[in-house]
Amino acid sequence: MTVPGRRSSTFTRLLRHGFTDPSAAERLLGLPDMAPVRTDPVLLDALGAVADPDLALRGLVRLVEAQKPEVRQSLLDTLVSAKPLRDRLLGVLGASEALGDHLARHPGDWKALVNYETADLHPGIEEFERGLADANDPVTLRIAYRRCLLSIAARDVCGTTDVAETAAELADLATATLRAALAIARTAAPGDAALCRLAVIAMGKCGGHELNYVSDVDVIFVGEQAEGADESKAMQAATRLASHLMRICSEATVEGTIWPVDANLRPEGRNGPLVRTLSSHLAYYQRWAKTWEFQALLKARAVAGDPALGEEYIEAVSPLVWQAAERENFVADVQKMRRRVVDNIPVAEVERELKLGPGGLRDVEFAVQLLQLVHGRSDATLHSGSTLDALRALAAGGYVGRADAAQMDSAYRFLRAMEHRIQLYRLRRTHLVPEDEADLRRLGRSLGLRTDPVAELNKEWKRHASVVRRLHEKLFYRPLLDAVAQLTPGQTRLSPKAARERLEALGYADPGAALRHLEALSSGVTRKAAIQRTLLPVLLGWFADSADPDAGLLGFRKVSDALGKTPWYLRLLRDEGAAAENLARVLSAGRLAPDLLLRAPEAVALLGDPEGLGPRGRDHLEQEILAAVGRADTAEAGVAAARGVRRRELFRTAAADLIGSYGTEESPAEADPGALVDRVGNAVTDLNAATLAGALRAAVREHWGDTLPTRFAVIGMGRFGGHEQSYGSDADVLFVHEPREGVDEQEASRAANTVVTEMRRLLQVPTADPPLLIDADLRPEGKSGPLVRTLASYETYYRRWSLVWESQALLRAEPMAGDAELGRRFVDLVDPLRYPAEGLGDDAVREIRRLKARMESERLPRGADPTLHTKLGRGGLSDVEWTVQLFQMRHGWAEPGLRTTRTRDALAAAHAAGLIATEDAQILDEAWVLATRVRNGVMLVRGRAGDTFPSDGRELGAVGRYLGYGPGHVGDMLDDYRRITRRARAVVEELFYGA
User: Fold this and answer.
1) Residues in contact with 185: Cβ distance below 8 Å, sequence separation at least 6, in sequence order
2) What is the C-alpha separation between 620 and 617, in angstroms, rounded?
3) Which region holds residue 490: left if phi is over 0, alpha if psi is between -120 and 50, else beta?
4) Residue 862: which H helix or E strand, with range?
5) CB 3.0–4.6 Å: which of 166, 586, 613, 737 could bond 710 by disulfide?
6) Is 256's pLDDT higher than 50?
7) Using an 8 Å Cβ cutoff, are 621 and 690 in contact?
8) What phi and psi, each to the nearest 5 degrees, are found at residue 104?
9) Does residue 393 contact residue 371 with C-beta atoms inside 8 Å?
10) What are the distances in angstroms from CA 570 to CA 486, 536, 740?
11) Which residues pair with 196 in a beta bridge?
12) Main-chain dihedrals φ then ψ at residue 357, nearest 5 degrees
C-alpha cells in the first residue's frame, strides 16, 4: 500500500523511464487486461526506449483491449518474450498515433510485425504486391496499404533501415499501390481496359525512389490505342481508367485516404489532357516545355500499367532531359529557379519550414538536379533520380568537392529523417517543424536525442540547415576553384570542358575568360589566395544572380588587383558579411558604379560600413570640398580635389541605389521606388551644388583672392533646381551678379564673366573623374544672350521681354552656390513671374499647350518608340512635369504648397488642395517615378545617359533587374511601362489639354 502523500515505486519507475504523465500511465497499467505484464521490467524498459512512452502505452492498451480474449494472452506473451516484435510494435506505437489508430481498428495486423526473416528486412515491389494482393476495392486497399506501412515504419524507427532505404521502400509501396489501384480500375471497366494501353510514369520523389510517408504521388499518364482500336476512343478510355486510379488512391473513405495522386506535372499542367499519346508528349517537350519540366523529368520512372509503353516513354524523353542545358533560355530559367521561393510561405512559418525554407531540403535537391542537368550531358553516371545517389556520383566525378558532398549528404539525411518522423506521427502531409514542446520532445527522442531532446533537436536542426545554406552556393563554385587552383595532386577535378559547361549554365557568357580570372585570383599558397578561395564560391553565386556575371567577376579581379596588397581589403570582405555581398551586387549590376570604384578602389570600404551608404548632406559636402580647395596650391588642383569628392559620392549614391533596388540576403529591396528616386535626386543635386561652390571658390581665389569685385550667385534650373538630377545630368544654371559698392559695372561684368568661364573650364578638364557640364541655355535670350547678367538686367529683361515659357522654366529656379543674399533676391524677383497673381490668363494657357504639342511632334528623336521614350514619350517625364507646372502657374499664387521646385512635392500639394483627384495624382506620380528610375537604371547599366530602354538584351535584362524584374521578365517590364505611362497620358489629356 502506498503511504498517502508519497509516490508509489511504479510512479517513480515510470518517471525514470521517460513517461511525462506517470499517473495516467500507472492507471493504464493497472487495467485488468494489462495484469499479465503490469510489473514486467522488460516491458517498461522497452517503453522507455521509444520516442513517446506515454503514446506507446496508450496505443498498446487500445490494441490489447481490441483483441479477442483467446488472442490477447498470445499477444502479451509474444510481446514479452520476442524482442523483435516488442521493439517493432512499441517503436511504431511510440512514434505514430495514426498507426496506433489503425491497429486499434484492425487488431490482427500486429502479426505483420512478428516475422523477422531476411525478406522482411528489405522488401521490394514484389513483396509489397503480395501484401496488397487481396485488395479488391478502395477500402480493402487502404487497409492493406496501412498494414504494409506498419512494417516500413517498424524498420525505420528501430533503425533496421536508414532514411534512404525507408524512402525507397515507401516508393516501392507506392508503386505496388498504383499497380493495385489500376487493376481495380481495369476490373471495374474491362471494356475500357481492352481499348487502350496505359502506362503510369512516376515523377518527383516517387519516381526518384525517395518518397515521404505522406506526400502527393506525382504521375504522368501515357496512352496508346490497343491493336485495332480507334485512337480517339482509346484515349477516352485511358482517361477514364487514369481518373478512376486517381480517385481510388485519393478519395476519402471510412478508412481515410492513401495519398493524393497528382498529375499536374504533365504537359500543360491542369489545362492539358490527363492522358496523351507518346508522340503528343514528345511534340510538347520538343516545342513548348520549359526548363523546370526537364528538371522534373530527371526523376521519371515507369511504375505501372503497360511496361513496354512505359519504357518507350522513358527512352524517348531521356535524351531531351540531357539536352536541356543547351536550350536558349536555360540560363535565365536557372537564374529564376535558383532564387529561393519563400514568398508564399507565411512569415510565421518560414523558420519552421523543412522543405522550402532557407537551408531546407529543396536547396539540396535543386543544387543536385541543376548540376545533373549541366554535366549529365556528357557523363551518364549522373543519370539518377535519387538525390543522394546523384550527390555521390557528382562527388565521384569531381563535380562536387568530396568534403562538401559528405556534409550535404549528412545534412540531407538528418532533415529527411526529421520530415519522416513529423509526418509519421499523424500520417499528415506537412513540412513544418512543430512548436509544441511535447511534439518536439517526441521528435527529438525518435531521432536518438535523449539527454535533452528539445534543445538537442533544435541545435542539430539549425546546424544542419546552416550547413545546407552555406554549401548551397559553394556546391556550384568550389569545384571551379579546385579545377584552376590545383592545390591537391591526384584529386579528381572538373575537366576544363566541364568547368566551362558549368559557368555557361550559370550565366557566364565568356567561361574561358572567367576561368582565367578565377585562376589569377585563387592560385598559389599565399594567405591572399587562401582567403580568395574562401570568398569566391559565394561571390560567384551573387555574380550569377545578376544580369552580367562576367562583368562582376572581371570587376572583382580589377579591384582585387588594385587593393590586393592592402592589409584591410580581403579582411573587410571576409569578416564583414555585408561588404562582400554589397560589392558583388555593385560590380555586376552595370558599368557606372564599377567605373567609379575602379578610379579609386579604396572606396570599397564604404560597402562594409553600416552607415557608409547613407547620403551626406549638402552642408557636410560643401564643407569638405571648400576645405580641399583651400588647401590646394592652384585652382586646377582645388577643383581636381572637388571632383574627386564628387566621384566618391557618386559611387556612394550609386551603390546605395543598387543595393536598395536589389536587396541583400539580410535586408529586402526597398519597397517604395519613389523613396529611391528621391534619394538619388537629392544626393546628386546636393553633390553637384557643393562641387559648383568649390569650383566658384577656386576660380575666385586664383584671380582675386578672397573677394570677387561683384556679388555672384549660381541659380539652379531644370532638374538641378528641382533636386531631381540623375547620375549623368548636366547642371542647368543661370549666373547672376551685382557689383559691389564702388566697383565699376564694366569691371564687375568682366570679373563675373571670367569666373563663369573659369568654372566651366575647371569642371571639364580631362581627368579620371567624371566631368560636371554646366548648361546655361535657359538664360534670357538663350545662347545669343550674355552668360551672366546683373540682377537689374534680369529685372529689366523679365519685365519687358519675358515669354511664358521662360516663366515656366523659372518654376525650377533655386539658388545653389555663391552669395546667398543675392540668390534670395533673385527668387523674390522671379516669384511674380512664375506664380502670377490671379493665375495664368487663357492666352498664356493656350500658348503653353501649343508649345507642348509642338515639342511632342518635333523633338522626339527619329525612330524612337513614343511608348518607351522616358522623357518625351507618351505619359513620360515631360507629360507629367508640364501638367504639374501648369497647375503651379495657375494656382501657385493662392496655394503656398505649389511654390516648390520639386515635381512630386508640387503634385502632392495639388492633390492636397483638391485640384487633382487622388487616383489621377497616383497615376501621374507612379509614371514619373518609373520613368525616372528607368533613366537612372540605363545610366547605371550602360555608364552613359539615355532616355530609352537599351536595345542590347543583356543591358535590357540588367535594367529589368534594377527595377525588380527577375530573369526572363523583360517583356513584363516593357508591358508594365507601357501600361503605366498609357494611363498617365490619359490623365494628361484631361488635366493639361482639357480633353
Assistant:
1) 241, 244, 245, 248
2) 5
3) left
4) none
5) 737
6) yes
7) yes
8) -70, -35
9) no
10) 22, 11, 56
11) 225
12) -70, 165
What stretch of H or E contains 578?
A: helix 577-588
Amino acid at residue number 585: R
Contact 386, 209 (CB under 8 A): yes
- Determine the angle formed by the axes of helices 673-704 and 618-631, rounding to 10 degrees: 30
Kindly tell me the burial class for residue 903, based on how many C-beta atoms sit within 10 Å of its own C-beta (0-12, 13-18, 19 or more): buried
What are 222's three cell numbers?
A: 501515357
Residues 446-498: pLDDT tens digits?
Answer: 999 988 999 999 999 999 998 888 787 677 777 776 676 655 555 566 788 88
Backbone φ and ψ for 255, nearest 5 degrees, come out as -100, 20
**What pLDDT, on the 0 to 100 scale, is given for residue 1?**
42
Instruction: Report the distance separating Cα 621 and Cα 297, nearest Å.
Output: 59
Evaluate the CA torsion angle 462, 463, 464, 468 in order and state its sign: positive
Say if CB 521 and CB 536 are below 8 A apart: yes
H runs (alpha helix) in 397-526: 402-426, 437-446, 453-485, 496-505, 511-522
CA–CA gap between residue 289 and residue 268 (Å, rounded): 9
Dihedral sign for Cα 442, 447, 450, 453, please: negative
Residue written as cell 517604395? 672
Q: What is the dihedral of CA 683, 685, 689, 691, to 10 degrees?
A: 60
Q: What's the confidence (pLDDT) of residue 2?
A: 45
> Can you spell out the DSSP letters for 808-855?
HHGGG-EEEEE-HHHHHHHHHHHHHHHS-TT---HHHHHHHHHHHHHH
| Helix, strand and coil in the chain, % to nearest 5 | 65, 5, 30
Per DSSP, helices labelled H in 892-969 are 903-912, 918-942, 953-962
Q: Are strands 196-202 and 301-305 parallel, antiparallel or unpaired?
A: antiparallel
Q: Distance (Å, rounded) from C-alpha 399 to C-alpha 375?
A: 8
Instruction: Tell which wins on pLDDT, 1 or 416.
Output: 416
What string of DSSP letters covers 54-74? HHHHHHHHHHHHHS-HHHHHH
Residue 941 is placed in which grid cell?
A: 547599366
**CB half-sphere exposure, 57, CA atoms < 13 A:** 29
Residue 222 pairs in a beta bridge with 199, 276
Burial of 851 (0-12, 13-18, 19+ CB in 10 A): middle
Alpha carbon distance 382, 390 (integer Å) = 6
State the Cα torsion 464-468-474-478 to the nearest 10°: 50
Residue 302: phi and psi, rounded to 5, are -75, 125
Tens of pLDDT, residue by residue over 901-938, are 999 999 999 999 999 999 999 999 999 999 999 999 99
- pLDDT tens string 565-574: 888 888 888 8
Q: Can you give the pLDDT at residue 498?
A: 87
Whole-Å CA distances, 864 to 860, 946, 949: 7, 12, 10
**pLDDT-based confidence at residue 3 (cuts at 50, 70, 90):** very low
Among residues 471, 559, 473, 544, the alpha carbon closest in space to that of 514 is found at 544
Closest to 692 (Cα-Cα) out of 607, 763, 784, 619 = 763
By CB atoms closer than 10 A (0-12, 13-18, 19+), residue 243 is middle
Give the cell for residue 657: 541605389
Are the C-beta atoms of 477 and 537 separated by less than 8 Å? yes
Q: Which pairing describes strands 196-202 and 261-262: parallel, antiparallel, or unpaired?
A: unpaired
Cell of 674: 519613389
pLDDT in tens, 820-862: 999 999 999 999 999 999 999 999 999 999 999 998 888 888 8
